[in-house]
Amino acid sequence: MRVEIKPSDPARVRRLKERFSLSLLAATVLERRGIDSDEEMMFTLESDAVYLHSPFECDDVFPAVDRIGDAIESDESILIFGDRDVDGVAAAAIMYRGLKEAGAKDVSTRLPRGDEPYGLTMAQVAEIQEKGYSLVITVDCGISAIEEVRTLERSGIDVIVLDHHIPGEELPPAAAIFDPLVPGCGYPFTGLAGCAVAAKMVWALKFSQTDFYSSECILLHAEPRNGTIRINAVRLENLIETDRISEELVEGAMSIERTRLMDFLAVGLPVFVLDGDTERNMLRKAFGSGVDISLIDIRQRLDSIMPSARGRSLFDLAMLSRAVRYRDGDREMEALLSLFRSMAFYSEPSLSSGFDRYLQLAAIGTTADLMPMRNENKIIVRRGLRLLGERPLECLKPLLGRQNLAGKLLNTRDISFYVAPVINAAGRMGDPDTALSLLLCDDIREAEALTDRLLELNRKRQKGEEDALSLIAGKAAESKEALGGKMIIVSDSRIPRGLTGALASKLQKEHSVPAIVMSESEDRVFASMRSSGGCNARSFLSLFASFFDDFGGHRFAAGFSMPSGNRERFIEVASGYAATLDESGGEAEAVEADAEIPPQYMTEDLWKISQMLEPYGQENGELRFSIHGAEIAEVYPNRGDSRVLRFAVRFGSFIWPALWWSPDDRDRYARGVRADIVFTPDVNYWKGQSKLQIIVQAMSEAGSD
Question: Which terminus of the chain is more exposed, N or C, with fewer CB under 10 A?
Fold first, then answer.
């Protein structure tokens, strides 16, 4: 076994270690993973929602919030139109709950049912017109519904599109669009799930109902230097920085009228400071006793909201501030900026503690939709999973209990294997409203009944997938061979339309190549594509847009529909393009690891590093460590499961429980054998107890290739 470890940059590692007080190993792992910018470090180390991007960085959020506000005030009839998968159902639930809490009285939901296609259709447009809605909010869809949105808008029904799929050359003529992938939209992160976009819109709606909305202000701080006074000021709008100024002045040597500060302040905005008397004294030292700037002291309000700030100067608070670590500006000014935002955030429960319920649903949808686990997705999922473990929504308690997850510190694997498939089963079986009803209910008995229904649907889905997979297994192997090991394209009219996504996912994971699975019904083809990311699924399908009536998706998952007459020609042309793909199904030449661990470093600290890097997922794979010459201390019975080898490893000062799934040569590893192992640190929960263990990713006898 050959282990491949990326080289590291000692200077960058040293910077991370010193700036963020990390161990050398932790800093090295982070640098090797490319997590070395201040922003990415912030999203890696923090869990507070105050660190999330503001939705108002997207320009269209302003008209969206105003239009929704008008609809609520006028008691208009609002329809939320979503999708049938976990992301779409979670997005619809988030938007519905958010609108109701914001005061909307007439809110309905609509998801594709049965064999209805993904997204808005003209048939559904007619239904919307007939029912008399005046505002439609699409969630997890809508960005490609050009004609449908145009028809609705022409008939006097406004549409707000909340989506995260890749737009085409033309955008729908909606009243507002919030899709981070729309070029020039202003939002700084393109990897949000549909449910996270919905959550962001709900937060923006709640923010619009506070005094901070559409308000501007200035934060100011003056501090002494060696014979000078440095004055920093930042202008904010909707708590977003729009401008800043910094001047260093010799005490009493210049009037304020001759400084740039005068123009910065002469805009009639309120000027906020911490400890007004101190700031006034500094300004007098800088400009003399004649200076008169109206200052608003936030000390009393800050102390009431953040008791830990009491009695501490801004200098002291700056030294203690976590947020300051991620900014390069003046330390005290950055601390004031962070404190002011936190004060605003926590003074409104709807923006902080009240927003946590939406993060629980957003964490599930983000994980299920295979969104990249980087940037703010880390905080969304990390915080959401923690809340799911500590105080889950009433509607989710029965499902977590049935899946033996209640009270557990959840991770993305728990969601991917035990939560998301159950919610997803409803849509795949043509009944997404059952899943939505669960996510919207607040009665525990109703939640229990709906959970039972979902678990039954999931059992039927599993049986259907097994039967369908057996139908196409041979075709998949033949297709992979015919396409040079680059791709799988299979079509079978016996496949239920709702299972194409699940089957494509299974084939992709089993064969490690992109997979397209097509089903045929009533002279139409419905298909799904799944990719690990080396091949952008949505971009690949865009090459064949002329074949499709409709298509959409993102890097890892996409789908399309087309007339049956186009199927053979599509397969022919797509097969030709498959030869150009870089993604290959061949065995990797080397096993990748984050670091090689000497015996003395094999301690619980490895698990702390693993916890720091969570949540794991796309673009943030599970942590892997390599050890050489470990001794197999014991091999345990199978417990009836031949897929796993359970054993114990002696390495360093401790013996560690180990699991190896689907080993090819398990009989070679008996007690006393020494092995080279690449493993992932893991925590096993059993009957309320937790135990550290390692999950083997690859293993060979010590010294073998």
Answer: C
Looking at 3.10.129.10, 1.10.3720.10, 3.90.1640.30, 3.30.980.10, the CATH number of the domain 365-459 comes to 3.90.1640.30
Q: Which CATH architecture has domain 589-701?
A: Beta Barrel (2.40)
The CATH number corresponding to 216-347 among 2.60.40, 3.30.420, 1.20.120, 3.30.70 equals 3.30.420
CA-CA distance, 20 to 13, in Å (whole number)? 11
Contact 601, 652 (CB under 8 A): yes
| 3-state SS, residue 81 | strand
Residue 442 pLDDT greater than 90, yes or no: yes
Nearest to 179 by CA among 64, 77, 7: 64
Q: What's the CA gap between 649 and 209, in Å, rounded?
A: 58
Question: pTM score, two decimals?
Answer: 0.88
Exposure string for 124-145, b = 16+ CB within 10 A, e = fewer? bbeebeeeebebbbbbbbbbbb
Domain coordinates in residue numbering, the chain? 55-208, 216-347, 365-459, 483-578, 589-701
Q: Say if residues 486 and 586 touch (Cβ distance below 8 Å).
A: no
DSSP 134: S
Nearest to 270 by CA among 246, 298, 303: 298
